[in-house]
Amino acid sequence: MAERQLYKVIFTNQGKVYEIYARQIYQSELYGFIEIEELVFGSTTQLVVDPSEERLRSEFDSVTRSYIPIHSVVRIDEVEREGVAKISESTGGSNVTPFPLPAFRPGGHKE
After folding, report:
1. Mean pLDDT throughout 1-25?
2. Measured between alpha carbons, how far is residue 22 from residues 77, 97, 99 in Å?
3. 78 falls in which pLDDT band (50, 70, 90)?
4. What are phi and psi of 5, to 5 degrees?
5. CA–CA distances in Å: residue 62 to residues 39, 57, 58, 65, 66
6. What are the residues whose beta carbons fall under 8 Å from the beta carbon of 97, sequence distance 6 or more?
7. Which is more confidently placed, 94 or 16?
8. Which of 4, 8, 20, 65 fits a 20 to 30 Å CA distance from 57?
């Protein structure tokens, strides 16, 4: 049986950096979003529990599909094995969040 692909997705959400693992990622029919399905978390039989991963697991507990804005995505990697899913603080060094810019110019004007 062929191994299934596994992706590591890093994106920002409300000033934090999320790192999650998923089996399926593709461009959404919703303009400007990617779809992430089949999230993968570490084994629940482990004796040591990572609080960051448990927070992610509870946040995405009943989610079958997640839509991530494309401008929030930092990086997507295809990986051989899963790591630890986590939420970390952004190290941007600024408390100012940039305003999202449109991906297209209204009216289709070119410069």
Report:
1. 86
2. 10, 27, 28
3. very high
4. -70, 150
5. 11, 9, 8, 9, 11
6. 15
7. 16
8. 4
3-class state of residue 44 by DSSP: coil
Give, in order, the Cα–Cα distances in Å from 73 to each of 17, 27, 44, 51, 101: 10, 12, 27, 23, 14
Task: Give the CA distances from residue 86 to residues 3, 32, 96, 103, 111, in Å, rounded to whole numbers and listed in that order.
Answer: 24, 24, 23, 29, 41
For residue 63, the model assigns a pLDDT of: 86
Is the pLDDT at 47 greater than 60? The verdict is: no
Q: Helices marked H in the chain — which ranges?
A: 51-59
Confidence of residue 93 (pLDDT cuts 50, 70, 90): low
What is the phi/psi pair of residue 107, to 5°? 85, -5
Q: Which is it for strands 86-89 and 33-40: parallel, antiparallel or unpaired?
A: unpaired
